[in-house]
Structure formats: C-alpha cells, structure tokens
C-alpha cells in the first residue's frame, strides 16, 4: 500500500513541478519524445486515481477489522476527523494568513472567490465545485479538490453496512458513472468531479470486500494488474484515447495489484524504502508540497532558468517535500491524530 501511495505522490510532485516550469516558460521538454514527457510529468491526475483506489481498500479493510460488518458510525467519523482535520485546519490557517498578507502565489483571485468563500468550500468539501464554476484557486488551495471528493464519499460510507445489497449497489453505481462523469462538463469538472474520482474509491472498497471472500488466481491477477497500470501510465497517450475509461482501467489495475499483495502479504524490498517513506507520509506531503515547489522555484528562477538546473529542481522538490512531510507528521499530525482518537 505504501509503495502505491508513494508512486501516486511521486507523480503528483512531478506534475506540479512541471506545471510551474511551464508557467515560467521554461522549455525543458523541447526535443524529448511526447510519450516520455507525458509519462514522467503529466501523470498527476493518474497519481490521485491510484491514491483513491488505495484509500478505498484501506478504509474498508480497516473498518471491517475494527468494527465488523455492522460498523460503528460514530467511531468511523471520529477516526476520520482525527486523521484529516488537524493538518487541514492548520493548512487553512496558514493559507489564510498568506492571503491576508498578500504574499505572491497565495492570494486568492477576487474574481474566483473571497477568502471566506474559499474557506467554506474547503471545510465543506466542495473546492472542486467552486473551481469548476469560477476558476482555479491558488495552487495550495487547488489541491484540496481531491480531499473534497474523498471526504464526501466517506461521509456516506459508514451509513450503509458492508456486504449489504445497497452498499454493493452504490459502489457499482459509482464505478459505472465514473468514466461518464469524466467526459462531461468543463475541463475542470471533467478532472475534479465527485463521481470522476469515486469510481476508484469504490473499486478499492469492492477489492477489500472481495479479498475476504475469494482467493484470486495470482498468476492471472498480478500480471494483468501490472499490465493495466503500465499501459495507462507508460503509454498514456494511447490510453487517453479511451476517454474516461482510461482512469477506470488504471484503478482496476491498481486494485488487482492490491488484491495480489493482500493475499501474499508481500513486502517491498529495502531498496524501495525512499518511495515507501514517501507513501507513508503521503497525506502530509500532499498538503504541504506546494510550499516546497514555490520555494525551490524561486531559487531556480534566481539562477536565470538554467536548463542544467531543471533536474535539480525536480529532485530537490521531491526530497524536501518528503522531509517536510515527515517532520509535519512527527511533530504535529500524528500526535494530534493519537490525541483525538484517545479522547472521548
């Protein structure tokens, strides 16, 4: 799970560095094959899709292990609040201060929203709706679109018992409507819509239910899952011609890998520990990495946009984001998470 989350956040980091370079008009991809560029720096949305699938599996399997098929609505919400709220509230406080201080890259465009309106969207999980209707918020706010999708799903999740026909029906409905949602609406909504991300979460939930009931043939499951992930990530230009189905294919492939690893209890080798550590702190890295992107970008621009420094920009951003995520988790989010879970 940590390996997949690490891969997901890696793609997000690469994508966001790439976007800042493009905005700064640095032609660093000139002469490179289109598919190579797409696979390395345009898979951010795919990274979020992987994370959604992992999240659905982990939340469902953890809930079943803790509370069984009957569930515990109060405890589920309390545990989700303890994990999500502390860092989110701290982030919003920092972003509000930066906006009020008129710090470059952190000021909300008044044509998009006021600070109060942006805070309301973040706290009620509809940043995606706000942006689809009015335009993009600053990058540190924009990343909260995925949290909006995930948390709206989990508001409904504990209200229906796992294994019930209604629960299975809701999950399958999300899977069917996901690719359709990704082909309707404006450009922002096609990427940020609720249903456009919920199919991956639903597939992760279904995988968690199935692995407890069925022993899958690993000789089929593992290579097929790997093939789907490789196709959608490494041959994305061809995969994107499938329209909304390409992201569903990625989620299905991710879930096959998850199911195989769950059955075999596979552990990643130590050589992959940097990616595993990134995955373990994926939430902290995700919410804080744009601060690093902007800080390193500022240093890069001061060097005169030297092309030889572009790889340094990418590597430095990933490394510093990982260190910052670890520090935030160790000093703040994990202690707060533990304290809130113990408090009744």
Q: What is the secondary structure topology, with strand pairs?
A:
Layout: H1 2-23, H2 34-41, H3 44-67, H4 73-100, H5 115-123, H6 127-134, H7 139-142, H8 144-156, H9 165-181, H10 187-192, H11 194-211, H12 218-234, H13 236-239, H14 245-264, H15 273-280, H16 282-302, H17 310-342
3D architecture notes:
- Helices cover about 75% and strands about 0% of the residues.
- It is mainly alpha-helical and about 350 residues long.
- It has one domain (about 1-340).
- It is globular.
- How many domains is the backbone divided into? 1
| Rg over CA atoms | 20 Å
Low-confidence spans: none
- What's the overall average pLDDT, rounded? 94
> Could you give the order of the helices and strands?
HHHHHHHHHHHHHHHHH
Helix content: over 70%
List keywords for this structure.
344 residues; 76% helix
Q: How would you concisely characterize the structure shown here?
A:
The chain is mainly α and 344 residues long. 76% of the residues lie in helices and 0% in strands.
